Amino acid sequence: MTTNDTPSTQPTHRSRFRQFRDLFNKGPVILGYIVAFHVLAVLAFTQPFHWHYLPVMALFYVWMGLSTGLYLHRYLAHRSFEMAMPLQFLFAFGSALTFMRSPFWWAGQHRVHHQKSDQPGDVHSPRDGFWHAYVGWVLKSGDRTMEFVRAGHGIKQTRFTRVLGASDVQILLNTALCSGLYALWGPGGALWCLYVPLVLSLNMTWCVNTFCHIVGYRNFDTPDNSRNSFLLGILTFGEGFHNNHHAKPQLARAGMRWFEFDFIAWLIGGFERLGWAWDVRWSLPTREQSALDQAG
Three-class SS of residue 254? Predict the structure, then answer.
């Protein structure tokens, strides 16, 4: 073999680009942008608040919350229903704004959480420490990426979710939206309308992961320490009824009792009536339901 035939050891443009993207999934970088978002949310309080910000803040909070609870959680991780492609794009875009990493990474880690809930290997159990369960797991989870990928086997991927799941694309989207709000309403508009609801949405998800395995009431005698929280159920559109969900993770609803207001389930029901969602799992097969009733 001649010198010219020797395979090159120099990194290609594609490999360099992949290495660049991988940097955004490193613990210190993740910590950096989590801290940055919280600093920007706090800085909002140095800017005047205008009442016309409020509907925009509410819109972003609801959009981000539904993108996590309805799309990443009930749709992708548990496949409790199917929905139309435009809705998938809408909520995939919303999840990109919350920096929840790749949708398939998120769904995979959540499946591992259910497989090992409050046992060794659980992704974010309070038994491993409060702050680990709250946010520390996000910084350490890069080492378990392949485990999450395997757990997410079978999850349908689309081109736009692959693109929107890339951390550098998420940063670009966030920057573009921030720039648009800045151009429209100045620094106050960008900080109040984007970063305050973003930080609230992130922390609501982390609260469910943590507090709903520590305090609250139980409708079902599940083998883990999952709990229901009425307050978090309201603030997360139904995700706080965590014990119900751990008892019946396949279902599209988490609210089981009359006072457990599950807005996500109501929305899925609305989509179903409009023909935008189908194959919705509202109940378990009779045999599984009977076993749960006896356990509960």
Answer: coil
What's the first-to-final CA gap in the chain, in angstroms? 71
The string of pLDDT tens digits covering residues 242-290 is 999 999 999 999 999 999 999 999 999 999 999 999 999 999 774 454 4
Tell me how far apart the alpha carbons of residues 163 and 168 are, in angstroms, rounded to a whole number: 10
The alpha carbon torsion through 266, 278, 161, 40 (nearest 10 deg) reads 0
Judge whether residue 15 has pLDDT over 70. Answer: no
Residue 31 CA to chain centroid, in angstroms?
17
Least confident of 101-115, 146-160, 198-212: 146-160
Three-point CA angle 123, 240, 81, nearest 5°: 80
Specify whether the CB–CB gap between 280 and 268 falls below 8 A.
yes
> How far apart are the C-alpha atoms of 228 and 221, rounded to whole Å?
12
What does the block give as tokens for 96? Answer: 């990109």
| 191-222 per-position pLDDT tens digit | 999 999 999 999 999 999 999 999 999 999 99
Distance CA 218, CA 241 (A): 9
Longest dimension (CA), the chain: 77
In sequence order, the 6+-apart residues with CB closer than 8 A to the CB of 61 are 197, 200, 201
State yes or no: pLDDT of 23 exceeds 70.
Answer: no
The closest of 247, 185, 145 to 48, measured between CA atoms, is 185
Query: Per the structure block, which two tokens stand in for 256?
Result: 């089981």
Q: Which of 121, 132, 60, 126 is nearest to 93 (CA)?
A: 60
Nearest 5 degrees, angle CA 215-CA 152-CA 71? 65
Question: Which of 62, 60, 68 minimizes the C-alpha distance to 101?
Answer: 68
Q: How far apart are CA 178 and CA 172, in angstroms?
A: 10
Running DSSP on this structure, what letter comes out for residue 247?
Answer: H
CB 148 within 8 A of CB 108: yes
